[in-house]
Amino acid sequence: MRKFAVIGLGRFGGALARNLAQRGAEVIAIDKDSKLIDEIKESHVVRFFFPQELRHYLEENFFKLIEISEFMKLNKPPTEKVWNAIAISKATKVNLGG
Question: What span, in angstroms and rounded, lies between the C-alpha atoms of 11 and 13?
Fold first, then answer.
């Protein structure tokens, strides 16, 4: 993993730090405003759902998780390095709202 230090998280530095982090680099962000540093730490493009979380959210919305696999590789459970997955679920009851 490549390491970078970005000093100053204004318009250019903030964009640079986020871009490097999204590409998997380790980024040391330095700025006098700690709020900007926290925003860089918390920024991400995609939210990864762990299988347990996915099961919980589905059940909370009246679905039962039947299978979760890597996208286009059925019967292969996703690992922490896989961002594309497919979940097969079945409705357990009709949600009438409210």
Answer: 6
The pLDDT tens digits along the chain (98 residues) read 788 999 999 989 999 998 888 888 888 889 999 888 888 777 655 556 777 888 888 888 888 888 888 888 877 887 777 777 888 888 887 656 65
pTM of the model: 0.43
Instruction: Calculate the alpha carbon distances from 76 to 20, 50, 53, 84 in Å.
Output: 30, 15, 18, 12
Token digits for 36?
């900007």
Helix residue spans in 1-98 (DSSP H): 11-22, 34-42, 51-60
Token pair in block for residue 69 = 């696999």
Pairing of strands 85-91, 3-7: unpaired
Q: And the tokens for 94? A: 């009709």
Q: From CA 27, how far away is CA 50, in angstroms rounded?
A: 25
Instruction: Name beta bridge partners: 6.
Output: 29
